[in-house]
Amino acid sequence: MVYNPTNPMIVQGDFSVLLEAYHADFEKVRSGLGVFADLEKSPEHIHTYRITPLSLWNAAATGQTPEQVLEFLLQYVKFPIPNNVCRDIQGYMGRYGLVKLMANPPSVSLAQESEPVVPGEFLYLYSQDIPTIMAIAGHKETKGIFHHKFDDHTLILSSGKRGIVKQLLVKIGYPVEDLAGYIDGEQLEIDLSQYDDAGNPFSLRNYQQQAVNLFYDNGRETGGSGILVLPCGAGKTVIGIGAMAQISMNTLILTTSTSAVHQWMREIVEKTTLESEVVGEYSGSKKNICPVTVTTYQMVTYRPQKNGPFPHFEIFNARAWGLIIYDEVHTLPAPVFQVTAELQARRRLGLTATLVREDGREADVFTLIGPKKLDVPWSDMEQAGWIATAICTEVRVPMDFSLRMECAQVPERMAYRFEAENADKLKAIDYLLHKHADDGILIIGQYIKQLEAIAAHFDFPLITGKTPTEKRDILYEQFRIGKIPVLVVSKVANFAIDLPDASVGIQVSGAFGSRQEEAQRLGRILRPKKDGRSAFFYSVVSKDSREQEFAHHRQLFLTEQGYQYQILDFDETLLEEGIEGCGK
């Protein structure tokens, strides 16, 4: 290949990819890159992506081949791709499926592909490549994990080490294709309803049915575990219900809050033929273990003493679960990884809008829940009308002299909080409230003191972690029906709350540079509107501050999805000029 100056992309030897943001093919290339690379930086002119082993393995798990990835890169690069990058793309993607985990010796397993086999006392790690098996057997990380050698291609391990060996092998660069099958849980007849509670016809949308099919894979060993990535508002709960109906077994669902538990329970009863008596809530106030049980991550990771046992882990063995659903799987707490490693014989479905984790444990999600089976770009869903068009604006509010002096004299973390709680943000909030007086508005923030001040100033109801669940549910319902036009909410509303009438989000503070939080908060307002109007997301930050710097990193994931933030410098003149009259 020769130099092509008209192309928009440069691939470098350190596996970074530079993409021109103003090129005519930017949207097409951005979408294609997102399949096998991660966005790292997105300033105005050049966006930087990174190709990693995990991003390539996830691409391979969705059916991408090294040839397809290289063909895409060759089509859009300015300069020849460095030889080491070409070789490593082929090498890393070739490693996915090079090692297989099976329930029976390979001579048996490879001959029958119709039904999953029940894992017994031992499992078999197989590769056609003998040096690969030798390297794994002799690696210091895997010493002691294998029971003995079955033949030159196969190692034997205890079935109880299924999750552990998958974690270790990803760590040393050998992602396992898990074909060991699943234990069938107790059968439970689950059919989808033909009508919803309002009497409207109900069925899965095409992409929702596709997601269920990709996860289940006709019951083969290649199905039954994996992650489905779809934007907020795309109906991930409905997809989970569709998977339940497909598998028709006892199901355990883990989600982020008790309000989300109640939402799942309502949706299951409304959209399936199950009676409410077979759908149980396992929470602080109720401990009902039923054929379908819904609980929270906080509940199962609770322990009375810091280093003591987790008393509610027993729920994982309380019934013969045929399916475990991890809602908002990117928030999966570290202790749940521990128990999930022991549950590899159960079917596992992860649902999320973003696989971004600020703790860097994406590889554990990949190994223990399953590979990414579907990743639908937000822009595609928006163009199809399944989620609302969103207009994102960063509103920069000046800090007065006294606040700037205070921030200059305290540690950075404290300064960030002072900047986030800038009292002059009230003026910007007041302006935005008047601008969107006819819309359902969520004011979302990180710091309770700040939210209490906003709620008191405007006389709006406030929901925080201390708000009793019953009161939260009442306030959410009043907002849904339009009785309450504005809600002030803390981070408890970041996840799994369906507020279809919210069309404006005003973010007043956040968790430093959390990309996942920014995505989830935008997601609160992306449910499609009945009249087709757009959603508006405002991030109100202190100008020329650490908060402004963190805001740029927070926006990274949404930039990758195709959203662009307008930048607005807020001052008193806006009260007369209006937002449309203000430039960047």
In short:
This protein has 584 residues and is of the alpha/beta class.
What does this structure look like?
This protein is an alpha/beta fold and 584 residues long. It has 23 helices and 23 strands. Strands 12-13-11-14-15-10-16 form a seven-stranded parallel beta sheet. Strands 19-20-18-21-22-17-23 form a seven-stranded parallel beta sheet, sandwiched between helices. Strand 1 and strand 2 (16-20) form a beta hairpin. Helix 3 (66-76) runs antiparallel to helix 4 (83-95). The longest helix is centred in the middle third of the chain and has 14 residues, at 258-271.
Describe the protein's topology.
Blueprint (H helix, E strand, L loop, with lengths): L8 E3 L4 E5 L5 H8 L4 E4 L4 E5 L2 H9 L4 H11 L6 H13 L3 E4 L3 H4 L12 E5 L3 H9 L9 E4 L2 E5 L3 H10 L4 E4 L26 H11 L8 E5 L6 H12 L3 E5 L2 H14 L7 E4 L9 E5 H4 L22 E4 L7 H7 L6 E6 L9 H7 L3 E4 L2 H6 L6 E8 L3 H8 L3 H9 L4 H11 L4 E5 L3 H11 L3 E2 L5 H12 L5 E4 L12 E6 L7 H9 L11 E8 L3 H9 L1 H5 L4 E5 L4 H4 L7
Parallel strand pairs: 5-9, 10-15, 10-16, 11-13, 11-14, 12-13, 14-15, 17-22, 17-23, 18-20, 18-21, 19-20, 21-22
Antiparallel strand pairs: 1-2, 2-4, 3-4, 5-6, 6-8, 7-8
